[in-house]
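Reply to dn_fold:

You asked what the input looked like. This is it:
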Amino acid sequence: MTISDSQSDTRESGDSPLDALRSWMARENLSAFIIPSADPHQGEYVPARFMTRAFVSGFTGSAGTVVITREDAGLWTDSRYFLEAEESLKGTPFRLFRLHSGNTPDYPQWLASALSPRSRVAVDGQVVTVAWHQRVSPILMEAQIELVAVEDPFDQIWPNRPDLPAEPVHPLSEEIAGVSALEKIRSLQDVLDLQKAASHVISTLDDIAWTLNVRGSDVPYNPVFLAYLTISRDSPPILFTRTDRLSPEARDALALAGVELRPYQDFESHLQELPEPILIDPERTSWAVATKLFPREIRLQQQPSTGMKARKNATESRHLREAHRRDGLALVRFLAWMERAVEGGEALNEYSLAKKLQEFRQVDPHYVSDSFSTISGINGNGAIVHYSVTPETARPLTPPAIYLIDSGAQYRDGTTDITRTVAINPPQGPGTLQAFPGAPRDFTLVLKGHIALATLLFPEGTPGREIDAIARAPLWKELRNYGHGTGHGVGFFLNVHEGPQRIAPGSSDAPLQEGMICSNEPGLYRPGQYGIRIENLLRLEAVPETSPFGAFLRFETLSLCPIDRNLIDQDLLTPLEREWLDQYHHRVYTTLSEDLSGEDLLWLERATAPLS
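and this is what came back:
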């Protein structure tokens, strides 16, 4: 059942979801209720059961928080979702609050000013973190407003609410993972010993899947499964999940690693059995879990698996290069097919193009799923950073046009994420450059930023926020900018957005380290006209040369797909930038050409020809 179906059922029963929630708030004597886009495992993508914000508001973007008071209702989200949110909230009682735009207050500050002293603000304690509570509670407390954790109210107001998923779980072989689950568990126990902690609670699904070398499909786009994991120094690790969905091979692999299996619902009662001190990550553990551990001794720090998982080992790195090679073949075949289809006058639209690319990827026997919902935007829709196309809303491809496609795949040997922006020229008549005269300059400035980051050398230990401006400098020089981060971490056959690394203004102190994967995706967006983004995935590696100033890092580009030469203003490129692009295109051609033939090979030859 879809969210909209459930909303219809609620209306038929007499109340809209918003009215039903306000009735519940009145019974509980609550002045406001906060609904983040999260589940008890703090995931970016959540199972249908936990899409409570979408159920109430209709906004389905992956980032945003709804706040409901007795008289008001608002959605807080960032610039990636402004246009999508505006469309979703049309005709509803919800107001859009644009974060980091003008003087817009964040929702804690807004609540502190909008509510009277002694008001009660509630949140489901399972879906917010300890760190969230530490940030929000003092703001409300200063305004004499009480913040309370409540049990999930949506079972009472959501007819036919989806059940918890329980899809099959399978092992990931050590041949692909590079390190056994037993070795990973022992490494985590060694960290506990160093930290003088007796036990550790892991709630995040990608950390659990990575630690145990198992994968599932409970969450859209992420090959993970609902579970909790506890690790102690002196006793076996315990996995809490629906045990009946574990394949025989997964059971055998977990038994070999010494993992004990228990039902998912036994997790809360087990918390009181854990030896203390107990290590939990305040950014990745729910307020409800921490509350159940109090008043026992707790150590708040980043969970050790986060850093271990981010630094890909040699085996993972080798598999990632191969996954990106095959992904590049799918993209080249798609782009070559699209050019032929346009020339042949075939009717295409944003949705059919996204599905066609998926078909090219699905031919790969290693393909499992897309790694996120493909962003397929023609002209003005490409300026919507997280545009979500449907068959009903798909814009037709009518040349001349500028087409942006941001997509990725989950393969059993790696995760990909790549964006290309291409000019779509008609078979006859004026071309794209005549229809969009400013596009080549915009595109080339984005390309210059992309190259600047891809070729950067920087000291080991540098946080991502300190190099974000490198990719923006060519745009800033001409008073242009983009509202999203330049790069995010990527998992290994795991979440397409992974921490702790991030290349973005104001991001954490987490240093970029050898083996991490980051995206490189500067962009430029002109609402109503076009969007431009060029994205490759990069692997961090050590610079082999020694320096009296310490160790340095550089990037290895993993993604393999031509960058559209038709949109480049060559006069804006320096000789070194031209050289980088020609060398990149040469590598794309030599790596992919052996597996292509006929018209696809001819297209690749043209697309990777030197600029000179």
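The two ends are 55 Å apart (CA to CA).
Hope that clears it up.
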